[in-house]
């Protein structure tokens, strides 16, 4: 989405995110990006005709819907590591349980995890207290520093890049069951982690002040 021009709130949040992306790799304070995306479960309405000599495969355009699932994505751009989870819903408790996995399974030794994400209404510390006992909720909350991308600024979240790669490489076809999506996503996650593919983010606050100058408020008055 296109952000409004002369928006001080947008550029303030944008520059905060860009400053976070300039941090060097720090095992004790990793920078992790998180996002989620819906995926429709569908199957073909007609049986496809396989390829044969002199004839391409034929696939009918009709399909049958089987509901939706949610895909949580967390990736550490400088390390080339990601965690993906498929859930039925994306409610507060689903998000809180995913973030607990991120903290305890991926970064158990980190002092503080900087988590970049959008300000969706489930992405709050209150989700921990609605899901876990107070002591556990406070333990998880203390593990994180939340950094929010601005409204209309989802392109600033590098987890969105990983979701695009996942969809292009793994989920760009008819998949009818949640179990099948989980199997495919887990295989993709393992393969991508083994390759250690990092993201070399180049856009800086200096660049934004030139290329996105129209978004900055005028102070001439």
Give an overview in words.
This protein has 221 residues and is of the alpha/beta class. It has one domain (8-42, 60-210): Nucleotidyltransferase, domain 5, CATH 3.30.420. Helices cover 37% and strands 20% of the residues. The chain is built from 7 helices and 5 strands, in the order αβββαβααβααα. The chain has helices at residues 8-21, 92-106, 126-131, 134-143, 158-169, 178-195, 205-211; strands at residues 31-44, 63-76, 81-87, 113-117, 144-148. The protein has a 5-stranded mixed β-sheet with strand order 3-2-1-4-5, sandwiched between helices. It is globular. The mean pLDDT is 91.
Chain-wise SSE layout:
Blueprint: H1 8-21, E1 31-44, E2 63-76, E3 81-87, H2 92-106, E4 113-117, H3 126-131, H4 134-143, E5 144-148, H5 158-169, H6 178-195, H7 205-211
Parallel strand pairs: 1-4, 4-5
Antiparallel strand pairs: 1-2, 2-3
